[in-house]
């Protein structure tokens, strides 16, 4: 049987506002958590924005979006995943009225996408908590943040109801367990308790379900999804203790999709809460709100991990998830283990568990690219390593589709080079398009097509038929 991608498969790329837009202090934008974390997602927080924070300028997508979307169109994008910066709409997060200039900016972006027949896929909250809310209310630790989020959500749904069909509520919502700062929680990670973490998680889950409910009411034909970090956890050995350790680690992540897809807290979480002295404050009406479930599941996939009941010696850090090093896998320059088959495994696991459409909205290889001149004098990057990584992973998507999994689309992460979320570097590049900016902030911000640009263009043109086994 000839394995094929569906005719309506949504090929595209993904970015986040805080990593690409720049213009942090233009047109009424307020400060977000990201504007004061110059070293990346692990902090520390500075008192005010500093020049060393590359995210403040990003790749100047704020002023260059027309040029960039035109390049995306040239590759043949069917969909473009981006996020709205909450602080462009409500600078502090608690204003009575939204910032019109911020609203107009996204109007212009969506219009530019539609000009080329590209569907926007919009993340409502992508690590862009207003700094004011983080400081005053400790972010999602406070119940009040739900109210501020609801106002923001109603504002953008009403404004863009005729321009955006596909929405995601929270980016990598399960990251809060490992990186609470990303959610705007100011309590240091080594001081915060599990009870405090899960109370903030509860507030986010209620807010996500509330956004889903509001979105379906305001935009009846909308498709609203959740978004999680997908990291399959393998037992390091056949030792039953390792198997059970991996099983429990898997559930830590599946908990988030269980709630957002099934509309209630799963049975197994009660024992976890009991054993970890977690006493949630669940208000009247919360359980009813949680019943507003998502239309599809989206996720990032970069790596798998192993779990062991015994060994802590080989712990690796990757995409915020700690795991034991897998002796059978190679790794990237940043130590992220490369496991294409893990993507097929994840797709099958999610589909079997939830029977909902799936969308891979982040996948890619961060690498140090070298800008060179080709034989025609054009600047480019010969990134065969990236092509191989993407080719091998997309083959596994094709296999999952043949398995019977319903996959909506694929958006490669950092389709244009941007500032890394984890390290706040420019040198960790993912894109099909090279941006001339360096870790010291220098560079012209000029755009250059990499070899992978043309590879992805052909992949989309052939709907995956150009993949190499």
From TrEMBL:
NCBIfam families referenced in this protein's UniProt entry, alphabetically: PRK09593.1, PRK09852.1
Q: Where is the active site?
A: 362
GO CC, alphabetical: cytosol
- SUPFAM superfamilies found in the cross-reference section: (Trans)glycosidases
- Official protein name in the record: beta-glucosidase
Q: In which pathway does it act?
A: Glycan metabolism; cellulose degradation
Q: Which PROSITE patterns match?
A: GLYCOSYL_HYDROL_F1_1, GLYCOSYL_HYDROL_F1_2
Record keywords: Carbohydrate metabolism, Cellulose degradation, Glycosidase, Hydrolase, Polysaccharide degradation
Q: Known InterPro entries for this protein?
A: GH (IPR017853), GH_1_N_CS (IPR033132), Glyco_hydro_1 (IPR001360), Glyco_hydro_1_AS (IPR018120)
Gene3D superfamilies of this UniProt entry? Glycosidases
Family membership noted in the UniProt record: Belongs to the glycosyl hydrolase 1 family.
Native source species: Oceanotoga teriensis
EC assignment: the record states 3.2.1.21
Q: Which reaction does it catalyse?
A: Hydrolysis of terminal, non-reducing beta-D-glucosyl residues with release of beta-D-glucose
| Any Pfam family matching the protein | Glyco_hydro_1
UniProt-recorded Gene Ontology molecular function terms? beta-glucosidase activity
Q: Which GO terms describe its biological process?
A: cellulose catabolic process
